[in-house]
Amino acid sequence: ADCCWTRLNGMEVWVGTNKAPPGTxxxxxxxxxxxxxxxxxxxxxxxxxxxxxxxxxxxxxxxxKVITLCEVQVFEACSGERLCPDSGCKRxxxxxxAFGKTAVHSSNHSSLLYVASHAVDGDFRTHxxxxxxxxxxxxxxxxxxxxxxxxxxxxx
Length: 156
Known about the structure:
The protein has 156 residues and is mainly β. 0% of the residues lie in helices and 32% in strands. It has strands at residues 12-16, 29-33, 45-46, 52-59, 68-69, 74-77, 94-96, 102-105, 132-133, 141-155.
C-alpha cells in the first residue's frame, strides 16, 4: 500500500496442503522471502520447481507486525498435467489462480474494513481502503485457498 510498504519487510511466502500457518507444525514449503520492500514495489517470489499446494501463505515472523496486501496473484505452472479439474492452464503458460478465491488472515484490523478478500479481488489500487490489513500482532499471516492442489510457479 502507498502508506505502508515497510510492513512487508521480512515477508515469507509458503505453499502447501495444510492450512495451519507457518510457525506451527504445518509441513508446508517455503517458496522464498524478502528482507526489504521498497515504496510502490511489486514483490515477486519464485517458487522452487514442483511446489504443490492448495494454500498460499504470506507470513511475517516477529512481534508488533502487520500485513497489508493490496493484490496477491498466484501463478500456476502449466506443465500439461492438471492437478485441479478447473485448471485452464495450457502447457508453457502461467495463469493467476488466486483471483476471487477465499482468503483469510490471522486478525482483522479494528475498523473491520480491510478484509482478507481485498487482496484477491482484482483491484490493483494501492490506497489502504482497497487492501487487506491485519491488526498489529505477533507472527501475522494471510492465506488464499486455491480450491485444490496446484503447482505454484510464483507469487506476486
